Amino acid sequence: MKRSTSIVSITAAYFALALVCGLPLRGRQEPATQSQVTNPVTTTVKGQMTRFAKNMVGAAEAMPAEKYGFKPSPEMNTYGHLVLHILQTNNLLCAKASGAATPEVLLTETDGRDKLVSGLKASFDFCSTALTNVDDSKLGDPLILFGNRPSSRAGALIALSDGWFDHYSTQAIYLRLNGILPPSAQPPAAQPAKQ
């Protein structure tokens, strides 16, 4: 029983790695092409950052300022807390992945939409700068995440990317509960009529 579980785990891990790194899924090695990416992990995360920065900042701006205290249920966090959490996570994980110092952020969830949106934008700017020279050569470097969890530079990048997916989906739910379409669900902007 344990053997089949570990084989399933190894197989699942390989497929996950194959999707992120572009590894071949068949038994034979594909010949190298000019379209191969030199640093597949870091290139993928940096590519995702552009889209998530646009959507997450857009979602933070879309929520009316008076709704930043909104909670779907009493035990859940406010929308302001969610935005603060996203910017703190960006700063922490981008600092860990790059070796840069974590920016000091003196915000609270009650600071209001304008300050929190500004802080969120700044966190994506920090990530963009901090990750500029990060490549796949040091993904195995050990580091500690979230207090005392042993991890690696790859672990920080995966947590960053996972966080963007998780946090944006949460933002989208909060927006929809308030009758607002999240940025990724907005219809394309109408093109002006040609004259």
Report on this model:
It is a single chain. The protein has one domain: Four Helix Bundle (Hemerythrin (Met), subunit A). Helices cover 54% and strands 4% of the residues. The protein has 195 residues and is mainly alpha-helical. The protein contains five helices and two strands. The N terminus is likely disordered. Strands 1-2 form a two-stranded antiparallel sheet. A hairpin with a 3-residue loop joins strand 1 and strand 2. The relative contact order is 0.15. Helix 2 packs parallel to helix 5 and helix 3 runs antiparallel to helix 5.
Main sheet overview: 2 strands, antiparallel
Q: Which fold name is given in CATH as the topology?
A: Four Helix Bundle (Hemerythrin (Met), subunit A)
- The radius of gyration over CA amounts to 20 Å
Shape: globular
- Count of distinct strands: 2
Sheet/helix structural class: mainly alpha
Question: Mean pLDDT, as a whole number?
Answer: 86
In whole angstroms, the N-to-C terminal distance is 70 Å
Proportion of residues in helical segments = 40-55%
Strand content: under 5%
Which spans have pLDDT < 50 for at least 5 consecutive residues? 1-28
Assign the CATH superfamily: dinb family like domain
Short recap of the structure:
The protein has 195 residues and is mainly alpha-helical. It contains five helices and two strands, in the order H-H-H-H-E-E-H.
